[in-house]
Amino acid sequence: MSLIDLSGNLLFVAFIAYLVATLLFGGAIKQSNATGNNTHIWGKLAIVVTIIGFLSQLSYFITRWIHTGHAPVSNMFEFTTAFGMFIVAAFILIYFIYRMTALGLVALPVALLIIAYAAMFPNEVSPLVPSLQSHWLTIHVITAALGQSILAISAVAGLIYLLKVVDVKKASKQRFWLEAVMYCIIIVVGFVLVTSTFSAMDYESTYTYVDKEGKDRQIIYNMPPIFGMNDYKAVEEHGMSPLVEMPGIINAKKLTTVVWSLLVGSILYLLIRLIARRRISAIFQPLVKRVNLQLLDEIGYRSVLIGFPVFTLGALIFAMIWAQIAWSRFWGWDPKEVWALITWLFYAAFLHLRLSKGWEGERSAWLALIGFGIILFNLIAVNLILAGLHSYA
Amino acid sequence: MENITCACGHSNPYGTKLCEKCGRPLTEEEKQNKVVDMRYDGTAIRSKTYNKSIVDKIWNFFSSVKVGISLIIITLVAASIGTILPQELYVNAPDVSKPAYYEKVYGWFGKVYNQLGLSDLYSTWWFQILVGMLAISIIVASLDRGIPLYKSLKNQRVKRHESFMKRQRIVAEGHVTASPEETLDKVEKKMTEMKYNVRRDGSALLAEKGRFSRYGPYINHVGLIVFLGGVMLRLVPGFYVDESIWVREGEMRAVSGMDGYFIENRKFILETHDNKPQGEQVRQGVNVVAKNFQSDITLYKQPKDAIPGDIDNLEKVRDYSIRVNHPLKEAGFALYQMNYRLNELKQMNFNLVNKATEESLGTIEIDLTNPKKAYNLGNGASVQLLVYTPDFNGFENGAPQTKSSLPVNPAFIFKMTTPETPDGETSFVAIKQTMEPFGETKYKMKFAGSETLNVSNFTIRKDRTIPILFVGGVIFMIGVAIGSYWNHRRLWLQVEPDGGVVMAAHVNKNMFSMKKDLDAVTAFAGLPHYIDQLEKLEEGEESTDGGIKEKEGDNTL
Amino acid sequence: MEKKKKRLVTRTIILVILALAIGYTVYGTATKEKVELVAVGSEAPDFTLVDLNGEKHKLSDYRGQGVFLNFWGTWCKPCEKEMPAMDRQYKAFKDQGVQTLAVNIAQTDFEVQSFVDNYDLSFPVVIDKTKDVMTAYNVGNLPATVMIDPYGKVAKIITGEMTEANIASYMELVKPE
Predict the structure, then answer these.
(1) Which segments within B368-442 are labelled E, that is strand?
(2) Taking a C-beta distance cutoff of 8 angstroms, is the pair A227, A244 a contact?
């Protein structure tokens, strides 16, 4: 087995371990609902499996690093996978400070989804372009991802907090938005399902089109085209023809992916609702019945406190140092840079609201969720939609 | 504005919430609260103390944290608007045609976006004023809060009034069996062991740890201001140079912005990865991935007192290979490999050919960077170069015109002299085009290959604000780290001669760890059990409506 | 009352300084784009360049005379158009103490020589091979003309094409008394 195959297998092992650990955490919570702490076997087993998974993923990371010769954070697949790994690392860190089992029940599925999302991107080893050939790639990207991961834990704590405090039996804005968060999570599942299904079928349709600057280009769809590119012509078409043609400024291939994910995700959501006859938030609510709100709030706040300086260092300061070396200017208002700044400003506002305006508990939890939303926007939308120097996927 | 005199006799400034000396709550609101607001330790925030002249009103506006947060949110939203469409800087079109580009590519939305100035949002006056207002807010709010907080923490008394202690989040009341002195000694011993500073005053004790963490936010604000100041300084002449030059291989050029320096581009190298394209690379139609962009250069310097144009006595500074991520640094300047142009024409070769027999009388090699007037082929044959236009774009009054000095579309007028045609024949030769303006010729200049060169684009940058920015960044990181990773823990203890004990504790964040300390000291010194008034509060309410009351005062700046 | 007054003064000073800083930033950014040639009234940067005959021309050697310093290129139409007029005025003012110096921007000797021959130009034409002088004078668009008075100071800067009457009046401007 070559190093890169080994690396892939280790990642797979990690994925399975996280899945198992999630179930174990679920079990641990059911068991401990009586006592409120997890000194018994389920909880211990869950964290041990989590650590095994983490070590396995760490080995994936290291072996891939050895194989490619650079830190595996240079494209969408590598970066997102690493982001998932750091979320698990941040969870383990926070777990050992606060010993809260319920955290694992949300943190691990989030990490799982992120890794699954990463797996939808090409995972080939690609050589580095000159601008990425620098030690700062390692330093900047890893620190930034670590910071984001720790900040993500605050959203995890926030979500659990909201699952407990929002009354899902009464109609309210809170109930609506909480369910909206759940729906978004299901959409990601939908994306993973639809992408892996069509990729298993080796689906491919090729079109030529005219891009927004009037140049002729070719594009390969990996999903049956719902939307066609500007002035498209089929080169090799399978299954169906595009239903609607889009103007040049819209990437119809990406739009197709989004719509497929929404479609499959929504069907999935409806199925769950039909089978369970409850809102998804209501399904989870009993699991978090016994969590200590004070402690959750503290975890949420603490992870922002720990993550904010790391994020600043990685996503702003190291980024500026590298930009100065590679691009001759430390700041250039590239979309990725701007969104890193926006994330930073948002968490600064979060801290000020909490410190001076007393926004704690539920409000703080909502803010933590929005913050994580901004981080994900920066990861997904900025790379895929807003073109810039950082679009490496 | 009148001072408030506390029951203990201390006179406090207007706006004080908790007496500076003994800690008694001074306002009705604080008296009502079960747990006091410990932000800024109850000192008067200066802005709240008076509100009179216009200066004070402006000051108070910027001092408000609410205004500060609003400014952060507005900046955040404004910044995000600038990412909807690419900024002008990243648009691949000449400056003058950028507005047209936005309209062409993005339609009416692009047009409006450009007209509103959103396509160059970050250098608009209003965005800069916004950031400037944020800076004012940071300075004013920090001054107003930091100074009183510092004074208050510096002048802390050991002994606090009962009403202050009982309104802390953590309170313990009861009796100890040991003697008061012994209890205090024990607490002192344990707290000292846990790295607290312990002060005693009669029957009272104050143990304190990590006070400096309270200054973290103010330190990081100083760092931010230093950083923003550095950014502003770039506009001051002399602090910032940003130039760009193109240099051909083999050419020497003065380095713009770097007086007295010359750069010679010896060779530009483009290397590609020799991997087999696969996966995404194929999907995007990228055949090769670049591995290295490199310009091998030599940097020269004029001797002292030399004037522009004097290149007779250049001193070699050094040879260097400028690569991406590896700029050349010299005398406070940095030269970056930014761009390149491949295969610009350098030399063109022509054969002098007899049209009828196809016989060649020889080859001339025209160095486009230095064409000669005449090329002698021997045996009575020679070619005279009458006209050379590097970038031919048509005739005007019978003369060929050039539209630039770059050899993009070279054209020549030759006069060909051979033993057969001693008077010479004239021929116009351009790429894929020949003309014989003075009648049919017997001979022609036949293209016989060319040589090319590459052109490197360098950015010359000097930024004397970098050290300032760096210092600002470091100060910020230090401030944010000590504000985030440390916390300020305090424990007040009062032991009456009869064994009556009141203990209170406060921490600005991370109550979880504080409680561990409290558990340790409680067990060691046999203190009564403490209660967390907030938890009590919450449980009490939860049983009624299940909601959580919003509370202030746990986490303090 | 004393304390209060002191506070008011402190606050006023801080706010004024900050307002000025912001004002300067906005102003600085707004005017950044406009690249200017050397400033009128300042000393013209000295330089030395070689003409087509291999002769060196040093600006400071013309101290005591006015100098008509013209930056040009063969591809620049307005430059080409004003050349004959410049040559006529050069001849007219040469003996009145106004020198003309045409600086070509880094073209080949061949192109410059053919151009000079073509228009039969009699004033010295030097080539700025390394663009050093162009950089020193911060020349952007061509043609650009700098009028230098007998004391070596920049008297006037002209960007764009000139008419013959213009040229004559500019030369008059820097004529030594």
Answers:
(1) 374-378, 381-389, 392-396, 399-402, 411-417, 425-430, 433-435
(2) yes
Nearby residues of B215 by Cβ (< 8 Å), 6 or more positions away: B146, B150, B479, B482, B483
The answer on pLDDT for A37 being more than 80 is no
pLDDT in tens, C24-67: 888 888 776 555 667 788 888 889 898 888 888 888 888 888 88
Nearest to B466 by CA among A79, A91, A323: A323
d(CA B266, CA B125): 44
Task: Show the low-confidence residues of chain B (pLDDT under 70).
Answer: 1-2, 46-51, 275-288, 536-557
- Rounded Cα–Cα distance for residues A86 and A4 (Å): 21
Q: For residue B398, count other CB atoms closer than 10 A to its CB.
A: 6
Report the Cα–Cα distance between both ends of chain C, in Å, rounded.
67
Name the CA dihedral angle for C17, C20, C26, C32, rounded to a multiple of 10 degrees.
-100
Chain A residue numbers with beta carbons less than 8 Å from the beta carbon of B292 are 130
Cα B19 from Cα B8, distance rounded (Å): 9
CA distance C91 to B277: 68
- The CA-to-CA distance between both ends of chain B, in Å, stands at 26
| pLDDT per position as a tens digit, B524-543 | 888 888 888 877 655 544 43
Only one residue has tokens 């591809």, namely: C75
Domain boundaries, chain C: 1-34, 48-173
Q: Do B390 and C111 touch (CB under 8 A)?
A: yes
CA distance B555 to B486: 13
Between A47-56, A192-201, B451-460, B532-541, the lowest mean confidence (pLDDT) is in B532-541
Subunit contact B485:A306, Cβ cutoff 8 A: yes
Q: What is the pLDDT of residue A139?
A: 94
Q: Does domain C48-173 have CATH number 3.20.20.60?
A: no
Q: How far apart are CA B67 and CA B73, in angstroms?
A: 10
**Cβ contact A312–B547 (<8 Å):** no
Token pair in block for residue A65: 């690093």
Residue B310 with chain C: CB contacts under 8 Å: 47-48
Of A122, A128, A358, the CB nearest to B279: A122
- Residues C50 and C68: their CA atoms lie apart, in Å, by 17
Q: Give contacts of B 287-326 with A, CB under 8 A.
A: 289-293, 323-325
B546 touches chain A (CB under 8 A): yes
DSSP class per residue in A320-343:
HHHHHHHTSSS----HHHHHHHHH
Tell me what ipTM this predicted complex has: 0.89
User: What pLDDT, on a 0 to 100 scale, did the predictor assign at position B549?
Assistant: 32
Q: Tens of pLDDT along A122-180?
A: 888 878 888 888 889 899 999 999 999 999 999 999 999 999 998 888 889 999 999 99
CA distance linking residue A74 with residue A126, whole number of Å:
9
**Are the CB atoms for B229 and B416 separated by under 8 Å?**
no
Peptide bond into B422 cis (omega under 30): no
Query: How many helices (H) and strands (E) would you count in chain C?
Result: 5, 7
**CB neighbour class for A77 (10 Å; exposed up to 12, middle 13-18, buried from 19):** buried
Closest chain B C-alpha to C79 CA, distance in angstroms: 13
Dist. CA A157–CA A151, nearest whole Å: 10
Question: Exposed, middle or buried, B19 (CB in 10 Å: 0-12/13-18/19+)?
Answer: buried
CA–CA distance, C66 with B58 (Å, rounded to integer): 57
What's the CA gap between A83 and A290, in Å, rounded? 30
Q: What is the pLDDT of residues C84-96, one digit of tens each?
A: 888 888 888 888 8
Q: How far is CA C64 from the centre of its chain?
A: 18
